[in-house]
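Input chain follows. Return structure tokens only.
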Amino acid sequence: MPAQDTTYSISDLAREFDITTRSIRFYEDQGLLKPKRRGQTRIYNLQDKVRLKLILRGKRLGFSLAETGRLFDLYDADRSSRKQLHTMLELISDKKQDLQQQMDDIKVIMMELSSVEAQCQQALQTLLND
């Protein structure tokens, strides 16, 4: 495990997480990352690296940057984490409901597409038989 005082450049993090430096700067603009500066150079620490990993994981799970930022704010304000865990459970529940609704919607669309496909196949067969 890296030492607490290990630092990273923006290109180090971009390479490690296979994202663009522009994405990292965007997360910084959104207030999710707060690197130190040495002139124009951004210096990221281990906490920044962990936050970037959490941002990307949250994105994969469907969390918005605002939701991720909310969790970071809660963590920064109250490290006892009870409130953070309750909030996380609430966000997970909401996300699961959203995904379930999307799955239901996809099933309906698939049934509709299958029905239209069958009608098209039948119409085509009728035209070929005429």
